[in-house]
């Protein structure tokens, strides 16, 4: 890609991510209090992609993560909060970044996730029973990282995901739900991890996904007629890579859109140019650039949403 590596404000983004964590009274920190585990995953993975994770006190992070584990085996978004499958995956991903999955009681944790699978193969997010294909992806991704995918009914899990496929090739959050790029990533990612991508009409889905790129800005949206948003640089791009249709979009134009959403003075990336930055969009912007093979960034795995070297350690015991 013909881009200057200096266009990404690496040092400023690092400084921004660290400032979000340090300033507990800031608006962003307060509004993220209930989902701090997700924020830790977004921020720390961004630092790793920028090859700056060593500046973090990993013992402090791991200690905090383990304090968020509930007696059920699942993890909460913060200490003394209720457990949810969303935060459980983020906790596992954070520990994976530091190569510390061995601190977990893996059987206890995998039992928690298995207990959330329903008769039809779907997954609930927690004891209250909300069902969503996001939770199917999270369960499959999490158990795969823990080498415990055999503990669930994978066949039924795949059947449920396939039942959420629409006539346009996309996927919704439940059967009949509107196709959405975020849900499509969850379904495609889960099917990729389980070796089930043959269920997808790759040309039909690829066409729907590449139509998410807006001609004027080069950015991606999540559904037809919506504004572009940096986070869809990840949801759409990773899905296109997994179904081998990424060559159908203008990658250079997308990279320019992401870079145009940076706060070049204070660091961080926003959803669209000149909007307020946050750690969520900073992560998905950098992750998107990683998928675009932007110079100087570590490679990220499009299915597991973790750096490739982290995945290699988990599955192959090597860097």
From TrEMBL:
Stretches assigned to the Prenyltransferase alpha-alpha toroid domain: 8-305
Subunit structure and binding partners: Heterotrimer composed of the alpha subunit RGTA, the beta subunit RGTB and REP; within this trimer, RGTA and RGTB form the catalytic component, while REP mediates peptide substrate binding.
Originating organism: Aquilegia coerulea (Rocky mountain columbine)
EC number per UniProt: 2.5.1.60
Name the UniProt record assigns to this protein: Geranylgeranyl transferase type-2 subunit beta
GO BP term, pick one: root development
Reactions the enzyme catalyzes: geranylgeranyl diphosphate + L-cysteinyl-[protein] = S-geranylgeranyl-L-cysteinyl-[protein] + diphosphate
Listed Pfam families: Prenyltrans
Gene Ontology molecular function terms on file: metal ion binding; Rab geranylgeranyltransferase activity
Similarity comment: family membership: Belongs to the protein prenyltransferase subunit beta family.
Superkingdom of origin organism: Eukaryota
The keyword Acyltransferase appears for this protein: no
Function: Required for male fertility and root tip growth. Catalyzes the transfer of a geranylgeranyl moiety from geranylgeranyl diphosphate to both cysteines of proteins with the C-terminal sequence -XXCC, -XCXC and -CCXX.
Cofactor(s) the record lists: Zn(2+)
Entry note: cofactor: Binds 1 zinc ion per subunit.
UniProtKB keywords: Metal-binding, Prenyltransferase, Repeat, Transferase, Zinc
InterPro entries per the UniProt record, alphabetical: PGGT1B-like (IPR045089), Prenyltrans (IPR001330), Ptb1 (IPR026873), Terpenoid_cyclase/PrenylTrfase (IPR008930)
A GO CC term assigned to this protein in UniProt: Rab-protein geranylgeranyltransferase complex
């Amino acid at each position: 890609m013909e881009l200057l590596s200096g266009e990404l404000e690496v040092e400023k983004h690092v400084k921004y991510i660290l400032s979000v964590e340090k300033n507990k009274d800031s608006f962003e920190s307060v509004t993220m209090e209930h989902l701090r585990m997700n924020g830790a995953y977004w921020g720390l993975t961004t630092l790793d992609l920028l090859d700056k994770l060593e500046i973090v006190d990993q013992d402090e992070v791991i200690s905090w993560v383990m304090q968020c584990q509930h007696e059920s085996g699942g993890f909460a978004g913060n200490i003394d909060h209720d457990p949810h499958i969303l935060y459980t995956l983020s906790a596992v991903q954070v520990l994976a970044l530091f190569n510390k999955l061995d601190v977990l009681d893996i059987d206890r944790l995998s039992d928690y996730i298995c207990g959330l699978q329903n008769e039809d193969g779907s997954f609930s997010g927690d004891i209250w029973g909300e069902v969503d294909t996001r939770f199917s992806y999270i369960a499959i991704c999490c158990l795969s990282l823990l080498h415990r995918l055999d503990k669930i009914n994978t066949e039924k899990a795949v059947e449920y995901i396939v039942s959420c496929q629409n006539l346009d090739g996309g996927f919704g959050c439940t059967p009949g739900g509107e196709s959405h790029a975020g849900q499509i990533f969850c379904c495609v990612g889960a099917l990729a991890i389980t070796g089930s991508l043959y269920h997808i009409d790759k040309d039909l889905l690829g066409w729907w996904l590449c139509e998410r790129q807006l001609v004027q800005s080069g950015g991606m949206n999540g559904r037809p007629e919506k504004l572009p948003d940096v986070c869809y640089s990840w949801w759409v791009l990773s899905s296109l890579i997994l179904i081998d249709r990424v060559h159908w979009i203008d990658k250079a134009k997308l990279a320019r859109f992401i870079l145009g959403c940076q706060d070049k003075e204070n660091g961080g990336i926003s959803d669209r140019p000149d909007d307020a930055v946050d750690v969520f969009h900073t992560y998905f912007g950098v992750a998107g650039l990683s998928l675009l093979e932007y110079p100087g960034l570590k490679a990220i795995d499009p299915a597991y949403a973790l750096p490739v070297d982290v995945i290699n350690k988990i599955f192959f015991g090597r860097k």
